[in-house]
Design goal:
The protein has helices spanning 23-29, 34-55, 74-97, 113-125, 142-158, 169-175, 221-233, 242-246; strands at residues 15-19, 59-66, 100-105, 132-140, 186-189, 208-211. With 249 residues, the protein is an alpha/beta fold. It has a single domain, classed as Decaprenyl diphosphate synthase-like (Undecaprenyl pyrophosphate synthetase), CATH 3.40.1180.10. A six-stranded parallel sheet has the order 3-4-2-1-5-6, with helices on both faces. Strand 3 (100-105), helix 4 (113-125) and strand 4 form a beta-alpha-beta unit. The longest helix has 24 residues, at 74-97. The relative contact order is 0.20. Bound molecules: farnesyl diphosphate (FPP). Farnesyl diphosphate binds at residues 20-25, 34, 38, 41-42, 45, 62, 64, 69, 80, 83-84, 87, 136, 191, 216.
């Protein structure tokens, strides 16, 4: 596993997005209930955020609860919601100490009222922090977000505020819940699954994808550094040729 001093601090992605996967399998391997895996996932979250703050990542987005996760057994949904909001509440002091601002994206109206209030409280209490932004994707799905953006833009066209000719990438960016946040340059998914699973489909258009077989509860800051080393070895061409990237004009 990589150490922090192996990471080139001149080539750090501004925004890293993570699909934290494998909590259930991790618990099952230990003969425990799935919720035990989610609880242990919190340690991975803490270590990863600590590592991200140390290397100077500006934004980190964690896929904490997808729209599809509402279809899990009610017991697991309740336990997960409780764990998420309790952890957020408990971490406010640490977030402030490390100057980390909390934000959330997703259909937050679908969260239980109490969870929504606690989440909003943590967002408000950390709003002034400027070292790093931690974005939790909660009740989030990219298709939901894109549908909302399309509705908003169509309303603007219908009301005559803009013409359809004015629809461009910037307008779409500004209509998504990630407005103002740079697109992730690196997306990490744990647990050996090679899918994007309805996560930031528009925003990940040019992201480097990194997959690790590690299950989320075992993921630590050194695993983040491994992902960063892999990112730093890649040539990001954005549709250009290799020569255009490496040779000055
Ligand atoms: C995926 O594993 C994980 C989740 C759906 C929830 C992630 C939540 C946490 C790690 C809790 C703490 C998070 C924060 C931000 C405080 P899975 O259940 O899909 O695992 P499986 O694929 O092995 O079944």
């Amino acid at each position: 596993m990589a150490e922090i001093n192996e990471v080139n601090n001149k080539n750090i992605p501004k925004h890293v997005a993570i699909i934290m996967d494998g909590n259930g399998r991790w618990a099952k391997q230990k003969g425990k209930l799935r919720v035990f895996g989610h609880k242990n996932g919190v340690k991975a979250v803490q270590s990863t955020i600590e590592g991200a703050a140390k290397v100077g990542i500006n934004y980190i987005t964690l896929y904490a609860f997808s729209t599809e996760n509402w279809n899990r057994p009610q017991f697991e949904v309740n336990a997960l919601m409780e764990l998420l909001v309790d952890t957020i509440q408990k971490e406010i002091a640490t977030l402030n100490k490390n100057k980390i601002r909390l934000q959330a994206i997703g259909d937050l109206n679908t969260l239980p009222k109490k969870a929504r209030e606690k989440l909003q409280n943590a967002i408000d209490k950390t709003a002034q922090n400027e070292h790093m932004t931690l974005i939790l994707a909660l009740s989030y799905s990219s298709k939901w977000e894109i549908i909302n953006a399309v509705k908003e833009i169509s309303n603007q066209v219908a009301s005559g505020n803009i013409s359809s000719e004015e629809i461009n990438e910037k307008l779409i960016d500004n209509s998504l819940s990630t407005v103002g946040i740079p697109h992730p340059e690196l997306m990490i998914r744990t647990s050996g699954e090679h899918r994007i699973s309805n996560f930031l489909l528009w925003q990940l258009a040019y992201a480097e994808l990194y997959f690790t077989p590690k299950l989320w509860p075992d993921f630590r800051e050194q695993d983040l550094y491994d992902a960063l080393l892999s990112f730093q070895k890649r040539e990001r061409r954005f549709g250009k040729t290799s020569e255009q990237i490496t040779e000055p004009n």
